[in-house]
Design brief:
73 residues; mainly alpha; 3 helices; 34% helix; elongated
Length: 73
Amino acid sequence: MTNLKVPGTPPLGQAGDLDGDLATLRGDCTRMAGNWAAPTAASALPVSPSLIHGVTVPSTSARMLDGMSDYGD
């Protein structure tokens, strides 16, 4: 069984409420946003098929994808 009691005092509006509400979630996200830096945008350049090697696809997977209209047609 999991012990859901955490030492300390919960933030206002969360006493005894493990789920919280949308406003609480937004407040938590706003407070935590400064702890993580957004990654710099990496530009994805096309890769020549001749540079792609070492990838193997099992024949059963290839047949399954071939049978799917999104991939096989």
